[in-house]
Amino acid sequence: MPAPSNAAGAAAPALFFDDIRCTFVSKDDRSQRYTAVADTRLAIAPGEFVSVVGPTGCGKSTLLNVAAGLLEPSSGKVTVFGEPLKGINRRAGYMFQAEALMPWRSALDNVVAGLQFRGMADGEARALGEEWLARVGLAGFGDRYPHQLSGGMRKRVALAQTLVLDPDIILMDEPFSALDIQTRQLMENEVLDLWSAKKKAVLFITHDLDEAIAMSDRVVVLSAGPGTHPIGEFTIDLPRPRDVAEIRSHPRFVELHAQIWGVLREEVLKGYQQQKKKV
Ligand SMILES: Nc1ncnc2c1ncn2[C@@H]1O[C@H](COP(=O)(O)OP(=O)(O)OP(=O)(O)O)[C@@H](O)[C@H]1O
C-alpha cells in the first residue's frame, strides 16, 4: 500500500506503519503462536506529536520496537520519510521506560556517547553535550555519575542523550512513568518546550490518557490483543503552548478525555480480563 500523501504532493510521513502484523511464539506454549499486532496502518507526519494509548500488554512496545527497527514485523512494512526501513532506524532516537544510562560514565559522557560513536571529534561532542545538559536544566552536573543524580535528573540526562543526536523522529515508551507526579509534569513540559522549538515527529507510548491528551496533536487508541490495531484516532485541538497540569482543566480537554475514554474503557477491561487469565 502506498504511504498516504495529499494531492499537493506533501512530504511523505516521517513514519508509516503499512499494514503491520507481529506474531510471536507463545511464551506459555512454544507450539503456539500469538499475534500481538495485526492490520496496523498508521502514519505520523513530520513534526507531529502522536500518542498511542491502549490496554496493558496490547502491543504498544511492540509497535515502538518495529518503528525503531529493533523488531522486524512478520508482515507489512515500515517506511521512514518514504523509504522502506531496513535494520535499525537511524533517523530515530529512543527513550524507554527503563534506565538507559551507563552507570560507569558521567552524565556528560553518557550524553556524548552517541556522538562519539558517530565519530564526532571529542571537543565538539563535549561542547554539544554541555549545551544539551544546560538545555535540560543540568548545567554544571556533567561530572556526576548516574547514581549521584535523582530519578528526574537521570531522565533529563537520558533526554539530552536522545536529543543531542538531533533525530528526525523521537520514539518514547512511557519515559516518565517511574517518576513522581510533580517531576513527571515538569519533564512533560520540558519535552513540549524542546519539541516546539524543533518540531520533530514524536511517537509517544503511554498508559496515561491524561498525559497523551496534554502532550499530543493526535491520540491513537489501540484495541486489546490479540491482533491489536488502531480503533480510534482523535485530533487534539487544544491550544499550544500548553502547560500539562493547567490544560487538564480546559473544557475541551475534559470533552476529549470523555470521548477517548469512551473508546478506550472497553479495551482496558478486555485487556484486564486477559491479564487475569494469564496469572
Ligand atoms: N518477544 C516476544 N515473544 C513472545 N511474546 C511477546 C514478545 N514481545 C511481546 N510479546 C507479547 O505481545 C503482547 C504485546 O506486548 P507489548 O510489550 O508490546 O505490550 P504493551 O502494550 O507495550 O504492554 P504494557 O502496556 O504492559 O507495557 C504481549 O502479550 C506480550 O506478551
Automatic annotation (TrEMBL):
PROSITE patterns linked to this entry: ABC_TRANSPORTER_1, ABC_TRANSPORTER_2
All copies of domain ABC transporter, residue ranges: 20-249
Q: Which domain of life is it from?
A: Bacteria
Can you name one GO molecular function term for this protein?
ATP binding
Query: Does the keyword field hold Magnesium?
Result: no
Family assignment?
Answer: Belongs to the ABC transporter superfamily.
Entry keyword set: ATP-binding, Cell membrane, Membrane, Nucleotide-binding, Transport
Residue intervals passing through the bilayer = none
Where along the sequence do coiled-coil regions lie? none
Entry protein name: ABC transporter ATP-binding protein
